[in-house]
Each structure stands twice: as structure tokens, then as C-alpha cells.
Amino acid sequence: MSRTAHVDTFARDRLPPRELWPQMIFDLPALRFPERLNCAVELLDAAVAKGWGDRPCLRTPDGAVWTYADLKDRADRIAAVLVEYHGLVPGNRVLLRSANNPMMVATWFAVMKAGGIAVATMPLLRAKELVQVIEKAQVTHAVCDARLIEELDRARAEAPVLARVATYNGGPGGLEDAMAAKSAPFVAVDTASDDVCLIAFTSGTTGQPKGTMHFHRDVMAIADCFPPTLLKAGADDVFTGSPPLAFTFGLGGMVIFPMRVGASTLLLERAAPDLLAAAIAAHRVTVCFTAPTAWRALVGLADAHDLTSLRRGVSAGEALPRPTFEAVETRLGLKLIDGLGATEMLHIFVSSADEGCRPGATGRAIPGYRAKVVDEEGNEVPRGTPGRLAVIGPTGCRYLDDPRQTTYVRDGWNLTGDAYLMDADGYLFYQGRTDDMIVAAGYNIGGPEVEDALLTHPSVRECGVVGAPDEGRGTVVKAYVVPAPGVVPGPDLVKDLQDHVKRTIAPYKYPRAIEFVDVLPRTETGKLQRFRLREMAKGG
Among 254, 259, 161, 248, which residue's Cα sits nearest to residue 213? Predict the structure, then answer.
């Protein structure tokens, strides 16, 4: 590893042993990083140096606009405040707590410039969850939107390692006043390309959260793989989306990717589908990142809102159902870019776009990454055979002091927990999570395939499919269905849906049990929590 700039070496000292790291490849010319690299300098300072200072960078629904120069000025001031007033030294972990707004972005860049490590957290996390993050990462500093301070204060009472907290949007005496006293540009810390710059915690799982550590070069790697080869955005594009910036899908899609090409982003503190649709129409958004459920909702909102400005749509967070892909293409004229990503990998590593799309497939390993499908022993399986997805690339899993590193990384490959089959051309077809694969009557059945079939029925609004214990059969396919508006559930509808699935896919895959529910359990980012459905199924 390179000579670190970190004075506080907590993160570096707790990287997994090198023999447990994934194999790293840097196939693209853009991925040949220098030994010294600070991602804030590359993304922000370099943008201003190129003459982009007056370009719009961050937008808000009320019409406010920050230019690239504005963002740099504010990030510099915040960095100076953190170092001079709060004693931040390179390597300290800084918890960021905010909805999606320009100050959240400015504080993230400030932490990068000061050589700190950003630990961004979802706005809806409660004190108990924040304590887990603070203690796991030994977070010493925090910058928090004052509107969200209550839960953080409760967490601090249980996690005294968090000693310094700065707040903004809270009136006199806050971060804004301290920033006003700073004026000179902040000279970014000369970090190593392999210094840790962010710790992203996994979501949607049970038990202790896993902190994934990423380097400055990792941030630049995701900026130079997916965007230029598949997204193909330009300086005139206006981005928006629903995922929180604390989620790496949101950080990449709404900060790193647009800034790499000099574009701007509309940041929404609230992004429910109706609000997202209204924002797209009002601000003539051209690129949108959101989850499949939101894309399905946007189709239904297209009559009420002018969404014709959209030219690119990215779907990630969970598998994109084929009916949703087709509905978006028919109604919105968009061929959605489906993306498979992981917190452990930082962002999307399997995708396809435009004429490269293949019906039903997530895509292929994007430039810079390689993928294969393996069995339980790690042996590559024949094409067309379901198995475990394994990937390598310029990013990879490095858990913070966690024995689960040996589960995610095997023989140098990242095992994402996804079950796929690969066709002869390298296209990957999603079969489900490896722990979501349903084994019934000797057959392997992927829940998402059954979900796709159900979603083509007009009486189904949303659904989730898991394996449910059965005394006679061991396991049966069970579907949790949210009926479409106005649809009255009952035995007749159960039979109709079962017959529909039998007609749509192989009959043995039909759901022998169907339960109607008002809502499905989802994470803050919109991902279906199948583990909660499995818990419901076990409970009867």
C-alpha cells in the first residue's frame, strides 16, 4: 500500500488481511491511478480549474442553484471549520446525517478534502442504528442537519466516542456562522489513492451492520467505468433521483457521475413518486436514478406530469421486472438501464444500455469488470446453468474488521449473494438472491421470475415471492400481493393469479400460497426486504 496521509490510522489498521482482499484489475486506461490522489480534488477542484466554475452544479426544488465554484467555496470553508474548530485530523471518521440537499454534498467534499473518512447515514435511521454505526466505525466527528439532530443526540448518549458535532440549518451559532469566518481556499490533504475515504454500511439485512471501506481511487473508478460507457451523459444534462446520498447508489448517480462531466443535479429531500414526477416536469430533468417500484409508479403518473424531458433512466436497488421495463419503454419512451450494484462494490458493475439490452437480462459485466457464475465450491458452471455470481474489477469488498469478509470474498472473487445464469454471450439473467432461491419438489425456483409473471396481471400492483415452510412439501412458493386499486382480493383472485402464472411460466413455479397485503416491507431506498417476507412466512 502507498504511504498513507492518515494520522488516525484506525481504518487502515482494520482493513482485512491482504490475502482476504478481492483480486483487483485495472483494465481501462482511465483506471491507472497515480499513487497520490484525493477524489475531491479530482471531482471538484479540477472542475473549477477546467473553467466549469460558473456552471450549475446543485439545484433545489425552490429554484436555488449552486455553481461548481459555489460548492468548492462552501466545501473549503467547512473543511477549515472541521480542522481548525473541531480538531479533525486525516483518518478521523465523520458521520454525515442529512436529507439530499446541497449542504450534504458540501460536507461530503469537505471531509474528503480534509483527509477524513465520510460515514454517511440514512436520514430515517434511529438512535439504536446510529449507535451501531458509531461504535463499529469509532466515529469521532459528525455534521448533522439540525432538523435531524434528535436521534443523533440520543445516540451520542450511548456512544461517547462521538465527541464533536457540528449542525447546520439550525439558526445562529451553527456551522454557517463558523463558515462565514473562513475565506481562504482550503488546501486538500495529499492523500494516497488507497487511503480509505468512505465507510458505507450495508442496509436491509439482519444482525450487525457491515461497514464497507472504499478508497479515493474507488470513487474515481466508478466515475470512469459505468458513466462513460453506458450512461453517456453530458454537461447539459440535469440529474435527479430518489436514493439518499448516504446510499452509494445515490452518491454515485447524483453527485459523482454528473460532476465528472460538468452536469448538474436536482436534489430532492423528499422523492416519493408523485414528488419525483413533479420535479422532473418542473425542472426538465434528463437523467433519473431510482428503483423499479418508482419507475412503475412514474408510468402511472405520466398523464398528470410532463416527463418527456427524460432521456436516460437508471434502475437499481433490486431486480428490474420485465413488465416494468416494457411499461416504461412504451409509456415514457425510455429503454431503462438496469444495473446490478452492491455496497461492497460501491456501485453498478453489471448493466446494459440501448441496443445492448437483451430482454430479461440485467446485462453483462460493464467495462472494467469481469463476471462468472460458480457453484458452491467456486467452480465455474456451464453457460445456462444457475449459480452464484462472482465478480472482480477496480473496486471490491473490504469489510471493516469483520469475519464475514471470508464469506463475501472467495479465491479473490467477490460473491455478491446473487444467483444468476449466464448465456453464451455473457448476458446475466437474475434468478434471485442465493438465500432467496426456492427449492420446491426438487426444482430451483427464482422468486423474481414468479414476481415478473404476477406483475403482468392487471390486478397486481406489487408483489414479493419467497419460499414458505410446508409440512407436506417442505417448501412451497408463496406470494405476497398488493392488489391494484379497486381490486377486491379473495379466493377467486387467488385462483386467477395462480392460473395466470401457470400460463406465463413453467407451471411448477406457480405460487401455491398467496397472501394479500396492504404494503410490502422495503428499505428506505425502496429495496424489497425478502428476509422480512421469509420471517412472515415462517410465522404462518
Answer: 248
Domain count, the chain: 3
Compute the mean pLDDT over every residue in the chain, rounded to the nearest whole number: 94
Residue that is last in its domain, among 150, 174, 190: 190
Mean pLDDT of 465-491: 90
The pLDDT tens digits of the residues spanning 107-132 come to 999 999 999 999 999 888 888 889 98
- pLDDT band, very low/low/confident/very high, at 433 (cuts 50, 70, 90): confident
Phi, psi at residue 76, to the nearest 5°?
-60, -45
The three cell numbers locating residue 278: 413533479
Q: Is residue 31 part of a domain?
A: no
Residue 364 maps to which CATH number? 3.40.50.12780
Q: How many CA atoms lie within 13 A of 511 on its CB side?
A: 32
* C-alpha pair distances (Å), 428 with each of 22, 327, 425, 455, 469: 21, 21, 9, 21, 29
Residues 105 and 223 in one domain: no
The grid coordinates listed for 220 are 474515481
Would you tell me how many other CB atoms lie within 10 Å of the CB of residue 359?
A: 9
* Domain housing 94: 38-190
**Nearest in space to 259 (alpha carbons), one of 308, 230, 224, 285:** 224
Burial class of 516 by CB neighbour count within 10 A (0 to 12, 13 to 18, 19+) = middle
Q: Is the dihedral of CA 144, 148, 154, 158 positive or negative?
A: negative
Cα separation, 56 vs 70, whole angstroms: 9
H helices of 369-490, in order, are 405-408, 447-455
